[in-house]
Design goal:
single chain; about 100 residues; mainly alpha; transmembrane helix; membrane; plasmid; transmembrane
Length: about 100
């Protein structure tokens, strides 16, 4: 038995938020942009493969999964860095 669509959506949103938090934390620790992008790419690729494989057949499913994962992981990483910069400013002001 499969969970309801709303439950699946909540799980996906929660995982995306968790990945974004991890990217922000790792950026705060000084990890480079590429390392964080690779970190976000893995779960994004797994999600998109799981999304497209049941619906599509052939190599198109893999290509769409790969392109979608690149876009999703890029968005998560690009969003994570400005958040990290804001936290750096806040923590810098509190330490002073």
């Amino acid at each position: 038995m499969e969970p309801a669509t709303s439950v699946q959506s909540a799980i996906v949103k929660g995982i995306a938020l968790f990945i974004a938090v991890v990217v922000v934390f790792r950026a705060f620790q000084g990890e480079d942009f590429l390392g964080n992008w690779i970190l976000a790419f893995g779960p994004s690729f797994a999600f998109t493969v799981n999304l497209f494989l049941p619906v599509m057949a052939g190599p198109g499913a893999f290509i769409f999964s790969l392109v979608s994962a690149v876009i999703i992981s890029s968005v998560i990483t690009v969003v994570g860095y400005p958040i990290e910069r804001d936290f750096s400013v806040i923590w810098g002001e509190q330490d002073a």
